[in-house]
């Protein structure tokens, strides 16, 4: 009884007296008080959120991720994308994981997600192991955030201090998923507007686009560039010629919509800055990639060039931008719930 009264008191103390700490994937939550200059977190989200209630949470996540990504390196990109597609709809609330039900129209059926979004089985495995260790403590929304960070690290990318404490939504938005997730054929102005609506700026847009350094895309997302970019039955003239012919061999004029091509043809399973170098060489796969350099926005052009030249600069900004994205409209406090199963509300 005394212990059960003491623990909430300790958690409450931690909420109001913590220093931001380094929570390194795979090493547990290393409780260091070295707050980074200029980085602030929501008072409701902070890295030590599970310090007392589930201190082994990150270790459990990383153990599952290591096996899943070793089996299929592409899974790292899928999990990173899952977090992105969740946050851009109605905030980082795990609404993307909900299945259809009498009251839910699943976001999985939205255009940007259907037959495309994946990694649910890995999230399910993480959730099951966390429920065994710490029943109904760690939210599905936080699992998505932890999985995105862990996947980045296991692919050779940066780590970051990850604010935690998100809760899970009881709703989903099929319409929101159809309208708020940037399309692969987006113009630069479309991209800037959609990111600004979420409180994200040009640095966030370009660095988060750098997540395309890993993973693949289906032919249907870039076929337009090969055969009819501007409605004149001509290819996108910004495509480098040899790259263009290589893509045509993968993606024929008719059929083959589910054929895949790496977003970064040089190092598709390694998180590095090659993506930005490829953009400068006319070898960005999606229109939404290439417009960062061809869209006549000086700021995005300058950032692409800077990240292509300095990988550590890209890594630092990517880490900051992942925190920024993870702070989009989280449910905290008594809002939402901690789902027992990520697929259904309690």
TrEMBL record:
<feature type="domain" description="Plant heme peroxidase family profile">
    <location>
        <begin position="44"/>
        <end position="346"/>
    </location>
</feature>
<feature type="binding site">
    <location>
        <position position="93"/>
    </location>
    <ligand>
        <name>Ca(2+) 1</name>
    </ligand>
</feature>
<dbReference type="GO" id="GO:0046872">
    <property type="term" value="F:metal ion binding"/>
</dbReference>
<feature type="binding site">
    <location>
        <position position="213"/>
    </location>
    <ligand>
        <name>Ca(2+) 2</name>
    </ligand>
</feature>
<keyword id="KW-0964">Secreted</keyword>
<feature type="binding site">
    <location>
        <position position="91"/>
    </location>
    <ligand>
        <name>Ca(2+) 1</name>
    </ligand>
</feature>
<dbReference type="GO" id="GO:0020037">
    <property type="term" value="F:heme binding"/>
</dbReference>
<dbReference type="InterPro" id="IPR019794">
    <property type="entry name" value="Peroxidases_AS"/>
</dbReference>
<feature type="binding site">
    <location>
        <position position="89"/>
    </location>
    <ligand>
        <name>Ca(2+) 1</name>
    </ligand>
</feature>
<feature type="binding site">
    <location>
        <position position="95"/>
    </location>
    <ligand>
        <name>Ca(2+) 1</name>
    </ligand>
</feature>
<feature type="binding site">
    <location>
        <position position="272"/>
    </location>
    <ligand>
        <name>Ca(2+) 2</name>
    </ligand>
</feature>
<feature type="disulfide bond">
    <location>
        <begin position="140"/>
        <end position="342"/>
    </location>
</feature>
<comment type="similarity">
    <text>Belongs to the peroxidase family. Classical plant (class III) peroxidase subfamily.</text>
</comment>
<feature type="signal peptide">
    <location>
        <begin position="1"/>
        <end position="23"/>
    </location>
</feature>
<feature type="active site" description="Proton acceptor">
    <location>
        <position position="85"/>
    </location>
</feature>
<dbReference type="GO" id="GO:0005576">
    <property type="term" value="C:extracellular region"/>
</dbReference>
<keyword id="KW-0325">Glycoprotein</keyword>
<keyword id="KW-0575">Peroxidase</keyword>
<comment type="similarity">
    <text>Belongs to the peroxidase family. Ascorbate peroxidase subfamily.</text>
</comment>
<feature type="binding site">
    <location>
        <position position="182"/>
    </location>
    <ligand>
        <name>substrate</name>
    </ligand>
</feature>
<feature type="site" description="Transition state stabilizer">
    <location>
        <position position="81"/>
    </location>
</feature>
<feature type="binding site">
    <location>
        <position position="264"/>
    </location>
    <ligand>
        <name>Ca(2+) 2</name>
    </ligand>
</feature>
<dbReference type="GO" id="GO:0140825">
    <property type="term" value="F:lactoperoxidase activity"/>
</dbReference>
<keyword id="KW-0106">Calcium</keyword>
<feature type="binding site">
    <location>
        <position position="86"/>
    </location>
    <ligand>
        <name>Ca(2+) 1</name>
    </ligand>
</feature>
<dbReference type="GO" id="GO:0042744">
    <property type="term" value="P:hydrogen peroxide catabolic process"/>
</dbReference>
<keyword id="KW-0349">Heme</keyword>
<feature type="disulfide bond">
    <location>
        <begin position="54"/>
        <end position="134"/>
    </location>
</feature>
<protein>
    <recommendedName>
        <fullName>Peroxidase</fullName>
        <ecNumber>1.11.1.7</ecNumber>
    </recommendedName>
</protein>
<dbReference type="GO" id="GO:0006979">
    <property type="term" value="P:response to oxidative stress"/>
</dbReference>
<dbReference type="InterPro" id="IPR010255">
    <property type="entry name" value="Haem_peroxidase_sf"/>
</dbReference>
<keyword id="KW-0732">Signal</keyword>
<keyword id="KW-1015">Disulfide bond</keyword>
<feature type="disulfide bond">
    <location>
        <begin position="219"/>
        <end position="251"/>
    </location>
</feature>
<dbReference type="InterPro" id="IPR000823">
    <property type="entry name" value="Peroxidase_pln"/>
</dbReference>
<keyword id="KW-0376">Hydrogen peroxide</keyword>
<keyword id="KW-0479">Metal-binding</keyword>
<keyword id="KW-0408">Iron</keyword>
<dbReference type="Pfam" id="PF00141">
    <property type="entry name" value="peroxidase"/>
</dbReference>
<dbReference type="InterPro" id="IPR002016">
    <property type="entry name" value="Haem_peroxidase"/>
</dbReference>
<dbReference type="InterPro" id="IPR019793">
    <property type="entry name" value="Peroxidases_heam-ligand_BS"/>
</dbReference>
<feature type="binding site" description="axial binding residue">
    <location>
        <position position="212"/>
    </location>
    <ligand>
        <name>heme b</name>
    </ligand>
</feature>
């Amino acid at each position: 009884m005394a212990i059960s009264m003491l623990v909430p008191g300790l958690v409450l103390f931690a909420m109001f007296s913590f220093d931001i700490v380094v929570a390194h994937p795979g090493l547990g939550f290393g409780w260091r008080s070295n707050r980074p200059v200029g980085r602030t977190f929501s008072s409701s989200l902070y890295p030590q959120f599970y310090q007392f209630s589930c201190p082994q949470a990150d270790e459990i996540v990383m153990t599952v991720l290591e096996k899943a990504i070793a089996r299929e390196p592409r899974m790292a990109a899928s999990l990173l994308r899952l977090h992105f597609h969740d946050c851009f709809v109605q905030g980082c609330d795990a609404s993307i994981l909900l299945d259809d039900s009498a009251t839910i129209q699943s976001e999985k059926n939205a255009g940007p997600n259907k037959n495309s979004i994946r990694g649910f089985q890995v999230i399910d495995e993480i959730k099951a192991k966390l429920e065994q260790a710490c029943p109904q403590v760690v939210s599905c929304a936080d699992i998505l955030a932890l999985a995105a960070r862990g996947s980045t690290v296991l692919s050779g990318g940066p780590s970051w201090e990850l604010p935690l404490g998100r809760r899970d939504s009881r709703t989903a938005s099929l319409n929101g998923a159809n309208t708020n997730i940037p399309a692969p054929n987006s113009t630069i102005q479309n991209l800037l507007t959609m990111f600004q609506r979420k409180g994200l700026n040009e640095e966030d847009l370009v660095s988060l686009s750098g997540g395309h350094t890993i993973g693949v895309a289906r032919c249907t997302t870039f076929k337009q560039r090969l055969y009819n970019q501007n409605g004149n039955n001509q290819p996108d003239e910004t495509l480098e010629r040899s790259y263009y012919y290589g893509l045509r061999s993968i993606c024929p004029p008719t059929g083959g919509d589910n054929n895949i091509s790496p977003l970064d043809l040089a190092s598709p399973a390694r998180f590095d800055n090659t993506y930005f170098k490829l953009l400068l060489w006319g070898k960005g796969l999606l229109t939404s990639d290439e417009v960062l350099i061809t869209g006549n926005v000086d700021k995005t052009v300058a950032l692409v060039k800077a990240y292509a030249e300095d990988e550590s600069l890209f890594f630092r900004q990517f880490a900051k931008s992942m925190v920024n994205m993870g702070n989009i409209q989280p449910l905290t406090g008594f809002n939402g719930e901690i789902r027992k199963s990520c697929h259904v509300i309690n």
